[in-house]
Design goal:
Length: 488
Amino acid sequence: MIRVLRAVPLRGFQAGTAFLMGYRYSACRGLAAGQPIPETHPEVLGAEELLPGLPVAEFVERRRQLASLLPQGAAVVLPPAAQAYVTGIIPYPYRQDADFLYLTGITQPSFAVIHKQQGPGDGPAADPGDHRFVLFVPAPNKERERWDGVPLREGVARDVFGADDVYTVTEMPSVMRQLLEGAAGIFYDADAYGGRLHREVPYLRDALTAGTVRPLRPYLHAMRWIKSPREAQLMRESADLAARSIRKCMSLTHSTNSEHFLAATFEYECKVNGAQRVAYPPVVAGGADACTIHYLRNDKMLEEGKLVLMDAGCEFWGYASDVTRTWPVGGRFSGPQCEVYDAVLEVHRQCVDACRAGRTLRQIHALSVQLISQAIARLGLLGEADPQAIAAGRYRPLYCHSIGHWLGMDTHDTSSIPHDRPLQPGTVMAIEPGLYVPDEPAFGRYAGIGVRIEDVVAVQPGGGPPEVMSRHVPTDPEEIEAIVRGGG
């Protein structure tokens, strides 16, 4: 999605102006932000936005909500994602930790402390969400900046991202000690940042040893599990990008192409239309390789008469999508392929419809197991679908994974939220039934057929039908055949 360029006030920063395709935009030559902000990227961000559609006020409210859940005087320690390297000094593109991004809107390395304020005499504050937001940013280093560019600076950290206090990372051990010494509880996930932060901040290490640190993740996951309307819009755009990119891959499918070609096409289509990255390595599995759930080789030629399964998603400004479709390389499902596909499609339809407030993902998985077991019996693959057979897991060789998972800023999002928690409006999940018939003679004409259908599904208010955010790539077999044969 390409956003319309907009006029953005410059908040007093030194800035230049330029013209691009007839639009005025701000070059902001003197502005050290380290990432897009409205003054430097008005074609993407509106006034006060830190991510498209997400104003700084939403991030402030998230921090307030978190503070309101914690004891008076508590301190939250937030490290960023650690930089990963290909080899030596060659970095992978940086991807921010989802919890850090959720609370700050900052996409580059920095550290944060959120300190819940107390009232007079250490009593309760009048506002339970009252807090101070402290950022630690890289110290100025002209030699490093010559190679890597100018990162986030103090003025921008205050004026754009809303920090109350800003220090350099070199000051962090001493300043963080001052912030944490009087805290009525420290909330910090010791495995974040590769487990390195508490090794660099002695007071935090000592607090961990003393057992006075409590995990932060359960609080943040409970917040992130329910998407705000603005978050839902970003997820909608991410899912739509992935869906339309898979549709494009369908239209380019023929036996002279390879799995790698389709994987590259998907990534190109997502990125050229606004995604920052793929959400995970795409699965493009032709023929019997579709029965390998996380097939990542993507190195074979497509075969006429076989199916190809694509499981792929993208990240759009911090929000992930996860979509799977299965289609015939030649543009027509064979009889056995169609039987397996129709069986999975019916499970998909019923499980998507079950994604309503009050139900649980565990209940929806149980529904999928019942329906898949009935389909397996109907196709004559593994005997009867009686309750004893289902309880014994007879279906598992042909359906070995869960019906789905939470989706949001991570592909497998909010892992601390159990699957038996009742769904609520704003919950988003991936629903992905599949049927994978081993390529063995015992399975006759169905041998080697693997089908999975996956969509991004959002629970709606009032018990209404769920929203399928990835609906712009069809699941109907006749529509799929038409796209593959027609090339569009």
